[in-house]
Amino acid sequence: MYTIQYNIIRGVVKIQYKIFSQLLYNDFNIGNIKVAKSFFKSTETADYIKNGRKQNLLHLITSGEREYKFKDRTIKLKKGAVLFIPDNTYYLTTSYDIDDISCGGIGICFDIFDPDGNIIYIEPDIYYEWGERKEKATDYFESINNLYKYSPEAFTLKITILKLLHTLAKTQSVLNGNYSLLEPALNFIAEHYNENLSVSQYAKLCKISESHFRKKFTECMGISPIDYRNEIRFRKAKLLYQKNYTLQEIAEKVGFSDASYLSKMYKRHTGTSLKADSEIV
């Protein structure tokens, strides 16, 4: 199971991952943006097997072909393919000409941050093939490349990259066959996170069995339905604490029985207290 925050225990940071589609449902920011339009020599290789990527990469292949070797699989992608390769992914990639045309592409590198400024890591993998949305994604890449050339610090640049990420993350969920299926429950939980409803009630909203709902929810979100609901509660609790509500008031507002249970669950999830977490700048 992949949780979606850092655990800070005894001064040691334990990295935990989100899956790509979870970007749809969490607050985050991006920074340290770099954009480049590049061409590669035939059979030119980039080796990330030893040290892994050092930033997230969104990449559009504009010509030629690229081969990616990741774990026990090999992926070959041609012009029009869109990829997302997270920081800490270990892989090998090789470029090839097609009909004497060099392999080329537009790459966007960036870091992802939570609202407290901590880096968010995405589960290592090579995410690719966004089907019918490729044309729209290609337009985004061209716009981002032009914006970066003329104004690399522009707010519009960041917004356009965020729109591209949203488009791809949503499509990835659709390709997984889960987003449309789970959407009624996800929307309901977002509005009724403070209600202690059973998983079976969420499953009924999606018109599937509880066991099928649990399986699909975990595949899509990387966590269980109750853990997902608690994620929302914890974010709301932190905002309320910063507004000087008491722990008991916060517990009642976000759906926990009392302040003691809220504190216990928050520490179990994050490795720290609500007070300590809220004081981090």
Task: Explain what this protein looks like in three dimensions.
There is one protein chain. Helices cover about 40% and strands about 25% of the residues. It is an alpha+beta fold. Mean pLDDT is about 85; it is low at about 1-15.
Describe the structure concisely for a colleague.
The chain is of the alpha+beta class.
Structural class: alpha+beta
Q: How many distinct helices? A: 9
Q: Runs with pLDDT <50, length 5+?
A: 1-14
Shape category: elongated
Portion in helices: 40-55%
Tell me what portion of residues adopts beta-strand conformation. 15-25%
Secondary structure topology:
Layout: E1 7-9, E2 12-14, E3 17-18, E4 29-40, E5 45-47, E6 56-63, E7 65-70, E8 73-78, E9 82-85, E10 92-96, E11 103-113, E12 121-122, E13 127-128, H1 134-150, H2 155-175, H3 179-191, H4 199-206, H5 210-221, H6 225-242, H7 247-254, H8 259-270, H9 274-278
Parallel strand pairs: 3-12
Antiparallel strand pairs: 1-2, 4-11, 5-10, 6-9, 6-11, 7-8, 7-10, 9-13
Based on the model shown, name its key terms.
281 residues, alpha+beta, 5-stranded antiparallel sheet, 4-stranded antiparallel sheet, 13 strands, 41% helix
